[in-house]
Amino acid sequence: MIGSLAKSKCIVACIADDLNAMILAAHACKDHWGLVELYTRAADLAVEQDAECFFLTYAYVFALQTGHPNQIDLKARLKHYGRE
């Protein structure tokens, strides 16, 4: 549990502070459509594959919940890394 918490903090710290703030604000407003875009941007900026897939997973979940058109592309990206 402690290791996963530390790993989560590291992943979140890897994205720009302004993007992190926008993600937190979108969660507070329950802007799930916007979260698809923000988590996708975070994935695009991620340096490590695990971090990229972490953000892609969140983007994909919110895309499925909202019927966002990017869900097909997000699924393909996750599948490419064997994370479907």
Can you characterise this structure?
- The chain is mainly α.
- The protein has one domain (2-80).
- The chain has 5 helices and no strands.
- It has helices at 2-13, 17-28, 32-45, 49-66, 71-80.
- Helix 2 packs antiparallel against helix 3 (32-45), helix 3 runs antiparallel to helix 4 (49-66) and helix 4 (49-66) packs antiparallel against helix 5 (71-80).
- The protein starts with a helix and ends with a helix.
- Residues 1-9 have low confidence and may be disordered.
List the helices and strands and how they pair.
Elements: H1 2-13, H2 17-28, H3 32-45, H4 49-66, H5 71-80
Helix pairs in contact: 2-3, 3-4, 4-5
Biggest β-sheet strands, sense, barrel: none
Number of helices: 5
Order of helices and strands: HHHHH
Principal-axis shape equals flat
Q: pLDDT under 50 segments (min length 5)?
A: 1-9
Q: What number of structural domains do the residues give?
A: 1
* Strand portion: under 5%
Class derived from helix and strand content: mainly alpha
The tally of beta strands, per DSSP, is 0
Radius of gyration: 12 Å
How confident overall, as mean pLDDT? 87
State the end-to-end CA separation.
24 Å
As a percent range, the share of helical residues equals over 70%
